[in-house]
Amino acid sequence: MGQPTGEGFAGPAALCVYLTGFGPFGEVSENPSATLVKELAAALGDANAATDPLSHQKKSIPPNSCPSSTPGTVGSPGITVKPAECNSPPTEAYVEKTRIKLCGWEVLEVSADAATEAAYRIHSALNNNRKQEQHLKQLETNDNSSDVGEGQRNHEANPSVPDGGRTEEPVALALHFGVNMKSNRWMLETNAKNDARFTCVDAKGCRPQTERISCCMPLEYRLRSSLCLEPIAANLRERGFPCGVSDDAGCFVCNFL
Asked: Which of 64, 96, 150, 159 is 20 to 30 A from 4, comparing alpha carbons?
């Protein structure tokens, strides 16, 4: 588990993000999702991401354990993916431009209990940070109150200019990474299913069979992502990453998040 330690950027954020991945399980001794989370956390401002021990997995993750896709393989039906270019991590200028704030990150134990506990932490962290960013935006608006009259006149003269007195709510994003050993491409999951029927035991030895994850919803009820994933997948393919959209995350721990 980690919190951002970098200086970040001045002013309120447009996007508050919380990153999670999984540690080892079954035949996956080095989980690439753990590597991804640590690398992204470091790029987004957590100076300790590359050095601090993981909160749930007390082993270091090698920096290059994430398997790369073979160039020229089929990324989606009828589409051949061109070789991916070597891309560097997000720069400080990129983070400043996009105004992304890292609210926290962690590599989770692969168990129903750990994922359930994490869901509450993630929701609390994102909710608190979003409120803080809204407060910062309001303060920023108040600081510019002397220009409101001029801004209003400009807005009336040119309606396309945004209203200077309006504050936008920052977007809160819980971004989880998992691994599918049978897949050779990135898959963006559209939904999580309220159904735990593990094909193997989790890290705590638990193996539920056709049980509800949330007692507040019917069995097999689906919670859908609020993101429009098809354009995101298309954008990733254009950048050279084999990527598709999935409507089935299986019945293991991923559905808990």
From this structure: 64
Domains of the chain, CATH where assigned: 15-66+88-143+164-256 (3.40.630.20)
Quote the longest CA-to-CA distance of the chain. Answer: 67
Closest C-alpha among 135, 157, 115, 143 to residue 255: 115
Q: How far, in Å, CA of 82 to CA of 169, rounded?
A: 38
- 254 in catalytic set: yes
Q: How many CB atoms lie within 10 A of CB 247?
A: 11
User: Residues 16, 103, 251, 254: which is the catalytic one?
Assistant: 254
